[in-house]
Design a protein that fits this description.
Blueprint: E1 10-14, H1 16-25, E2 30-36, H2 43-54, E3 60-62, H3 64-70, E4 79-84, H4 91-103, E5 109-114, H5 119-131, E6 136-140, H6 149-155, E7 164-167, H7 170-179, E8 183-187, E9 204-209, H8 217-222, E10 225-227, H9 240-257
Parallel strand pairs: 2-3, 5-6, 5-9, 6-7, 8-9, 8-10
Antiparallel strand pairs: 1-4, 2-4
Length: 258
Amino acid sequence: MQLQKKSRNRELVYGISAVEQAIETSPDMILSAWVVKGREDDKRISKLIRDLSIYGIVPQTAMRHFIDEKAEGGVHQGIIIEMKATPPKNEQDLLDYLDELEQKQEVPFFVILDGVTDPRNLGAVMRSAWAGGCHGVIVPKDKSASLNPAARKAAAGAASAVPFFAITNLARVMDDLEERSIRCIGMDGSAEQTIYETDFNGGLAIVMGSEDSGMRRLTREKCAALTKIPMAEGVDSLNVSVAAGIAVFEAVRQRSAK
């Protein structure tokens, strides 16, 4: 069996949870599937095989080294699907989406990632955003991780459920959010207030900086407020995906209480 050449019009999704979510949300986008030979009787994989067959997709069985090579070292858990590529949403898509939320009288809740480059961190943040009921994740188009297979695997299904916006001008989008009464609150270790002293109610976008240097200067200046996670003495920072999860669920706590 030969590996297929990569195409810009196709993308790979692997990992049981990610494949489950893809079947649930976008079965018409699935083109083909592969399962590691000998894993067909695995309870979760056999269910995925049955679910795929409903939509006319019959997974091919292949040796593990083939699946390993196709996943490029990612943890595939024995199954890979190939889908039509879905480009990330842009600025206009975001504005249209905000109009829809306003019409539905929903209170916007977003996460903004300013320069997070590790796809596993992006995927983990997507999962926290999904679990916390966020309306979407916004990233700059340049110098940011994309929703590649590694990110989708880390997201464990969230990549198909949470709207993902890759925008050209983050500062301009933050201005647009502010005009719509959506406060951008930045996570910054040097902030005076902690997340427990910060009001996360109302329209909200939690802004996280990059893994190494945090938020860029202009992004920080565009924030309506800065806040931090209180930590024990001697601890400088947390992984960005962990910090995002803590901030998202403090917001969820406050918003649920109100």
